[in-house]
Amino acid sequence: MSAINNNCEYISKRLIKITFDGKTYEAYEGDTIASALLRNNIRLVGRSFKYHRPRGIYTCGIEEPNALVQIISEHNEPNTRATIKRVYDGMEITSQNRWPSLRYDFGAINNILSPIFSAGFYYKTFMGPKGFWKNLYEPLIRRSAGLGKPPKNFRSKSTHQYHNTDVVIIGAGLSGLAAAKKFINTKYKVLFIEQDSYLGGVLKNSNKVKTINGLTPQEWISETEELILNSKNITILKNTLVTTYNFTNHLIALEDKFAGKKIDLNKSELTLHKIRTSNTIIANGHIERFISFRNNDLPGVMLASSFEKYIHRYGVVPEKEPVIFTNNSSSLSLLKKLISLGCKPKAYVDSRKKDNIETEIKKILKDKEIPFFSDAEIEGCDGNKKVETITIRQGKSFNKLKSSMLCVSGGYNPDIHLFTQSKGLVKWDKNILSFKPDTPFQKTITLGSTSGNYNFKKLCDEINEKLSIFKTKKVSLDINLNVPNKFSIKELWETKKKNNSNWSKSFIDLHNDVTTKDLKQAITEGFDRIEHLKRYTTNSMGTDQGKISSINSLAIVSKMLKKEISEVGTTTYRPPYAPLSFAAIAGRSTYEFYDPERKTSIHSWHLKNNAVFEDVGQWKRPWYFKASENETMHQAVQRESKMLRENAGILDGSTLGKIEIKGRDALEFMNLMYTNAFSKMKPMTSRYAMMLGEDGMIKDDGIICKISDQHFIATTTSSGAPKVLADMEEYLQTEWPHLQVYLNSITEQFSTFNISGPKTREIMMKVFPDIDFSNDAFPFMTFKNFDYKETKIRIMRASFTGELGYEIYIPPKFGLELWEEIFSCGKEFNLIPYGTETMHLLRAEKGYIVIGQETDGTVTPIDLNYNWMIGKNKKDFIGKRSLSRPDTSREDRKQLVGLSPINKKDIIEEGQHIVELNELPKKISNPIKYLGHVSSGYHSPNLNHSIGLAMIRGGKNLLGQKFFVTATGKTKNIPVEIVNPVFIDPENKRLTS
Amino acid sequence: MILIKCPYCGERDQSEFSNGGEAHVIRPKNPESLSDKDWGEYVFYRNNPKGIFYERWVHSHGCKKWFNAVRNTSTDQILRVYKVNEKRPDLSDFKNTLKSPSGEPLVGSGNFAVKK
Ligand SMILES: [Zn+2]
Known about the structure:
The complex is a heterodimer. Chain A is an alpha+beta fold. Among the domains of chain A are: 1-155, Ubiquitin-like (UB roll) (Roll); 156-287 and 412-491 and 573-597, FAD/NAD(P)-binding domain, CATH 3.50.50.60; 657-748, Alpha-Beta Plaits (2-Layer Sandwich); 845-979, Beta Barrel (Elongation Factor Tu (Ef-tu), domain 3), CATH 2.40.30.110. In chain A, strands 9, 10, 12, 13, 14, 15 and 29 form a 7-stranded mixed β-sheet that branches. A 6-stranded mixed β-sheet of chain A has the order 42-43-44-41-35-45. A 6-stranded antiparallel beta barrel of chain A has the order 46-49-48-47-50-51. In chain A, strand 48 and strand 49 form a beta hairpin. In chain A, helix 19 crosses helix 24 (836-846). In chain B, strand 5 and strand 6 (77-83) form a beta hairpin. Chains A and B meet through strand 27, strand 28 and helix 21 of A and helix 1 of B.
């Protein structure tokens, strides 16, 4: 009834301490969590996903469906496979999905309620009424179903590493080692990847192989490893799992740098290897599968080869007297190992007919007087949170045995996950009753049991033949075995149930709690396609991807459908092969490295002056400036807006995109790219311009400065700059390669300040006493270059507020100095800094649009009444033809208008709908006629009431009419009048003053 | 993640490139002379075949050059790359190319990982 230790060279005898659910246990250095728990006779390690059934350790590797734990000492890392994760001194572990404790779990009532949790229950049960999903069902399901808790916030130090190589060998078992041996001291660059911290695979996990070339397996592994290490062309990566096999032989592998060690927070804990290889050799072996029987999930049921691996690899015999249940010849090695350790299995149950069972097995069982049941099966097992009694069926008779462990072998599946990820085709093999690789799609070679070759004697020939495409020497393997070389198996997927109780279940997917009954039910309901059935039942959709059970489910389904298994097909094997931490994927791209922040040269000044920032693309722009600690955003924006129209304000516009367009054909190019006509424009003048898509919709806007016919500077919106430059480049390269034009992004070459307000001219005259700012010398929409101190500046007369305004361009190196100079000069004129929110308010008062606010990719310049911007006499420009499409010339398109509340106290909110009803009905049964939406809504401090810009159907013809705007949380709508969108200074007197 | 061979820089990772849709869709010389239907075809209609496809790519995080590629959309193999001013390769050049990883039909998708 208890575990014993076995001598094992992979485990150090240094004792360490770990805690599991608060209790301290002793373990050996080198143990996994699972081997440590088994050593301490802990069988119950978790509760299942749906029914909260008690679960134990089922396997000894990556395929584990049950033993998922949470590592408290590693930022709460959840869903860690206890069968993989190595322990270290002080490791803190808890079980998952139980409340209040593992032994007394409240959620286990789900098991009693199981009839309502059958296949498709999410789809059927949680259908309505409306709102129940969000408020009741989802929170309930989230609390009761599921696995671990999310990890704590931490800073990952994971790194990414890139490789370019000739050959990758996946798996360092017998086949992988033999293959690697061929590449020793050759011209090929080889990456040799092993998931475990030791090489050897089956050689260290079992005693199936007695000798290789006259050496013990361990001697042969050491010798081979030594040779590989001395060969400069081969790199070994241990503790590394290949998770993904992409197109063009691109592999992703995850290396655990701290396997068996406590994480050092200053070092990279995981390395994600991104590998580009010419050839891939997959030799990652096979995975044992289970058999479905009544309560095949009880703690104490374990795969036979895993039981064997615990003895060899971790030096722990989980139980001295287990029952062995098999349908194939491979379990002989476990039997022999147990006998050699002085243990005696309680019984040996083989589903094969006595005549088909190997003589050696029968002899041992007879000699050691072990109860032997041939042509028999396990009907089921029973017990309280562990296996206590096991029922064997032989013909019509039943035998009940007492044992705490049951070792099961349902045969072996070649591990085809990576091969199918690479898009290779698999084929059903009747001899091994499994799928094996057939036609590769990429340069992929499978070796050994991965390729479906379970014959040790044929391995050497297979390797030499398949690797003959490489210029390497032949290897020789003279293998002596402890087990029969010929693999024999009898088809058995599920045993017949005798007992039927609500608690008794026969599982097909342990991870997701899917029973064989669920499969039957789904088929009855018409889900007879394997991909549909998988989603309906959630079979093999867990994080283990049904590694020990998915082939079983295909076989059971094919029997029910009376089809060949190859006709039923497999579901798609998807990367990753096993779950990997998001920290590994993110690598160093976290926090401030995730997305860079762009700051202007004035940023430090903004910080000092209490700017609140807004993100515009990657830019940090001042949103508004707080005049005092208690000033709200609304107060700040109202103050800034009023002060600017009374005195003057300055905005840091450095983020605006700036593109330089130069070359012989620059004029022709600009005429094609923008709606406006630039031919007659005088040098050193500027113009507000629009760029359309070929569909006629507005893409971007900005001011175009014409220096000459061969030289333009275009400004773009802050976030649109990269896209505008890319679009220009695309047309130049692909449609008009004959045009000689060169483009350059100069956004970061200049700091840009927009200064505007009635007192601007006086401030400018004080800052630049040598420049004539009079209307005659410096009219609206012109620009000039000047020497300023040791640099050059460009000043343009332009405005986005509707007030007299100038834009100053200066190299960023001198930006802050000039900005401070302007402030000291502007002090006597009450110059204020303002942010983007005030800019938006002021431009809305003036009826200027903002790209992405008034426009949304469905708006043409005509919809905005910007017909004056369209160069109608130009033969062509991007989008011109589309402006006369039937759709764009419709009269009832949404068009730009202004909104003014009839009751001046009402607030027009951005995003609200414009309707004909003064009040919304309490219960809405018919759709309400929708006329348009409010695209911008502000309280105007200069008009002292709320204003809005809106896009309304046929808006141009609705001037002076009364409609209603909906309001948040109210059924009563706000009466508004449709007005001209220019609220302030429609005659442009301020602008041109 | 596939490898793409930029005709100017050589083989680079897919993440350095952006796809530009169907190639050889030429902007009409005189858009005004086109009927609404013909103009609509140019602006809105593109082919989306399963199999051999002529498409545009730009080495956006590299030399920023546009080029054309012939890609098998069902296998993601890039069969040819050529500069924009080079002649479009003939479809018959690619008739011996693998139809799809698993020989699935010309239309539709699905799981055909098992060899019959
Ligand atoms: Zn390039």
